[in-house]
Amino acid sequence: MTTTATLPGTKAASPNAAAWAIFALAMGGFGIGTTEFAMMGLLPNVAQGVGVSVPEAGHVISAYALGVVVGAPLLVAISAKWRRKTLALALMGLFTLGNLSSFFAQDYTSLLVTRFVAGLPHGAYFGVAAVLAASLVAPTKRGRAIAMVMMGLAVANVVGVPLATLVGQQLGWRLMFVLVAFIGLVTIVFIAVIIPSQKAHPDASLRRELGALKRGQVWLTLLVGVVGFGGFFAVYTYVANTMTDVAGFPADFLPVIVGLYGLGMVAGSFVGGKLADWSVLGSMYLLMAFIALMLVTYAFTVHIQWLALVMIFVIGASGSMLVPSLQTRLLDVSPGAPTLASSLNHSALNMANALGAFAGGLVISWGWGFTAPALVGAVLAVLGLAVALVSGWLDKRAKAVAAVPAGSAGR
Fold first, then answer.
1. Contact (CB, 8 A) for 124 and 343
2. How many CB atoms lie within 10 A of CB 398?
3. Which letter, b or e, does each residue of 29-52 get, where b requires 16 or more Cβ atoms within 10 Å of its Cβ?
4. Contacts from 380-383 at CB under 8 Å and sequence distance 24+?
């Protein structure tokens, strides 16, 4: 069962206060999810606006992802002694400025730079937001609290991304950044007013945070995210082509399909939080196996339209269900340095994005068709399950060794 240790220097808030605080943190996730995914639907507009090809414009998305990977460990490390509320405000401030600077970017190069800057606080924000949310509730409700923060990211796919895409297409793609910056400003106000201030850990330091990187269980959990979650992105990256070329849906039906995917993510966040509170490792085992099974099912049923719609919802849900368990596991295996480990989860998920897209594109280029990425994703999910099982076995072995009384080994 999940460990129920309370984070150092924290105190649970009243249920009502905790709910509002988690809502404020989730709003930041809503803004981050909107700016991350809306760019995909606006790529042709961006390409025309800065005078490059669509593939070149795609590098703007890569620049943001690179910012996420770099920013998570960098920003958390240099702010190790800050109060968590102060760090959350600073990260959301950087996010807001990064998006405003993207609005003013005059050429392709400056847009690449500003998107990189906008991506820097992404992982660090979700990391500190997860730690804050977990500290505001009883230890047995951490998974649900973290899931509610991540809910902002899921809801963005249903509400924020379509709205930002519509604004960008009708009024100019640059205005999408203004909309996101406004969400960032509202989040800053909410965090400043609602989130209770907590003292930094008395022993907080750069060395202490970096100490999390010495723990093998941290790296194993991150590897579960990189490998296991790659299957989720292998499908998501090529969902448009699969739905039109294999399932036979018209292109103008794609917004409905993407909306179903997003609704699945919302539902998955609810379920995933409860599963994480039931058993962190148990839910990781269960969900990795479930994801593998669903991806195989998707590959063999996507040509049937009604089943394709069902499966796109289920796959969206299954991927989203895994995130609270991964985030909670990182808190469990990094005592004394939870913020850095928690932030690295989003670096891992962005690496999973790259891995899934690359592996899926590879099998498509080999002529295996648009259903092949789902099968590749199933293999990745099984590999993720294997890593999770190794992590759990090492946990059991360590506990068994610790339970042996001192001096009894030689008897």
1. yes
2. 11
3. bbbbbbbbbbbebbbebbbebbeb
4. 380/227, 380/228, 380/230, 380/231, 380/234, 380/355, 380/356, 381/228, 381/231, 381/288, 381/289, 381/291, 381/292, 381/295, 382/288, 382/292, 383/227, 383/228
Q: Which two tokens stand for residue 155?
A: 């809801």
pTM over 0.70: yes
- 130: its two tokens: 């997860």
Q: What is the pLDDT along the chain (411 residues), one digit of tens a residue?
A: 344 444 444 555 677 888 899 999 999 999 998 988 788 777 778 888 988 887 677 788 878 888 888 888 888 878 877 888 999 999 999 999 999 999 999 899 999 999 999 999 998 999 899 889 988 888 888 899 999 998 888 899 888 888 887 888 888 889 999 999 999 999 999 999 999 876 655 555 566 666 677 888 999 999 999 998 888 878 877 887 888 889 999 977 877 887 888 899 899 998 999 999 999 999 999 999 999 999 999 999 999 999 999 999 999 999 889 999 998 999 888 877 777 878 888 888 878 877 887 888 888 889 998 899 999 999 999 999 999 999 999 999 988 887 776 555 555
d(Cα 120, Cα 103) in Å, to the nearest integer?
17
